[in-house]
Amino acid sequence: MFKEGVQPRSRQSGLRDCSGPVRLANRARLGKPHWYVVGEKGALLKEGVDPQEACMLRGDIRASQEDPANYARVATEIAGTVVELRLQTLRGDWTAYYRNIADALTEGAELAVRPEEARRGVILLQAIEESIRTGRTVEFAEGL
Asked: Which of 5-19, 53-67, 92-106 has the lowest mean pLDDT?
């Protein structure tokens, strides 16, 4: 079942003046790209999901490696020439992330991902949901 919204707009750094249709799916008979981002000067398509999950379920999260077929495809223009690039995903480490949270709670360690950094992502996701629900563009305040 797909829900569609129109024109979520971001004013936050890195996403300045981006807009476009949004489609969310919780069930689909055919897969869709994990990320599909289109702008005036380029596009990014990312297939697949984080390979850590399957390895974690098998009890060996450190064995995870992304299939090169799932590397991001980027099409853009560089010095007047249209190019397509393949970008390898930076390797994540869920265990280090959650170990850091535990250390912050039990030993006062500094968080690797601070709440104010996570807040921006949450605001973006909420704006997407609002755009889907209302069918309207959602504007962001400067600095978010």
From this structure: 5-19
Are the CB atoms for 49 and 55 separated by under 8 Å?
A: no
The arrangement of strands across the sheet holding 72-78 comes to 35-38, 42-46, 72-78, 81-87
What 3-state class would DSSP assign to 1? coil
- Between CA 47 and CA 89 the distance in angstroms is 11
Phi then psi dihedrals of residue 115, to 5 deg: -55, -40
Yes or no: say if 52 and 65 are a contact pair by the CB < 8 Å rule. no
> How many CB atoms are closer than 10 A to CB 19?
15
User: Which two tokens mark 61?
Assistant: 């999260």
Helix/strand/coil for 63: helix
Q: How far is it between the farthest Cα atoms of the chain?
A: 54
pLDDT digits (tens, 9 = 90+) for 9-33: 433 334 444 555 556 555 666 677 8
Q: Which two tokens stand for residue 63?
A: 């064995």
Strand, helix or coil for residue 125: helix
Token pair listed for 13:
């750094």
pLDDT for 60 beyond 80: yes
